[in-house]
Amino acid sequence: MTQRSAGDSGHPRLLVVRNDKLGDFMLSWPALACLKASDAAPHVSALVPSYTAPLARQCPWIDEVLIDPGDASGREGRRELLHRLREASFDALLTLFSTPRIGRLGWQAGIPLRLAPATKWAQLFYNRRIVQRRSRSKKPEYLYNLELAEALLKELGLKVPVRPEPPYWPLPDGTRKAQRERIADELGLETSRLWLFLHPGSGGSAVNLSLERYANLVLAVEAQLAEASRHAPIWVLTAGPGEGAAIDFLRTRLLDKSVTAHLLPPRHGLDDFALSLSAADLFIAGSTGPLHIAGCLDRPTAGFYPARRSATPLRWQTCNAEAHRLAFCPPPGAGERDMDSIDIEAAAGRIADHLRHFPTCETTP
């Protein structure tokens, strides 16, 4: 293809779109890392909603963050975004989740190479389409995204780099230690014990365990660690907007059973909250955004998934190292939303066994 803006500088200008939910965006980071690893050193802009923009600005693989005002922005908002894309003179558009509005936007902006999954009628606006059939859930979402990034590089005539490995959100040296010290000061916690973060909410985006089941999980993990003569971990509860009442219920339920759970103090925005998760020795949650933040940080995770075909543990696998992942879902034959069929004692056993092999948190990288 003929590149408009790369001709003089040799650095292609790429626009990557992942403008849906938080977890989906975090699973795009391996693809972004792949693009930036190209020898051509492309300039990567990301079009994201205002909600995920603070994290996009933290991403080491993104050079510029553009805000998508969304479907309800009106004619003026759409016109302003289109003007901005035209002014940027992008060489290529990579849409990781295709919608007609974004497809049309890229076409109207005159971006010469426009690549997206071959799904729905939105693909008509793209001149490169990759058949993936994601709904079959045969691969992790982040791998589907990574394959699209590799396809884009090939279309640009660029060498595809060796696939990047976790962490896909590498933090500067000392960041994790600083976050642990900060939380220890705020909550009076011992830094020599393992810290288990539990995020029981889902933001309404996924089927999840009930609060009672999460309480039972905590109690079962405590009991199994005690049987193995291991120190009890420190439990830290995290919550999203509007989940305060649920967290209070869970804390009270645990306190009734003589287990103290601490609430992560309020943070200064989503990016500050995300950095706090680096302090966890294990992050436990349903298939939701914070779980995928922890995965991107390569923190150990334990995720609880529904049995729905489009939401399997494989499809929505966290992008941390394999040794850092635990996943639980209903047994074969269970209903799509039947999270009560997950064997909590067995899950606690696997979590406790995982923790038994941990060094003290002071030596955990």
From TrEMBL:
Kindly list the biological process annotations in GO that this record carries: lipopolysaccharide core region biosynthetic process
Could you list this entry's UniProt keywords, alphabetically sorted. Answer: Glycosyltransferase, Transferase
Q: Which GO terms describe its molecular function?
A: ADP-heptose-lipopolysaccharide heptosyltransferase activity
Quick check: keyword Glycosyltransferase in the entry?
A: yes
> Which chain positions lie within coiled-coil regions?
none
GO CC term (a single one):
cytosol
Q: Which InterPro entries match?
A: Glyco_trans_9, LPS_LOS_Heptosyltrfase
What is the protein's given name? ADP-heptose:LPS heptosyltransferase
Provide the organism lineage as a comma list: Bacteria, Pseudomonadati, Pseudomonadota, Gammaproteobacteria, Oceanospirillales
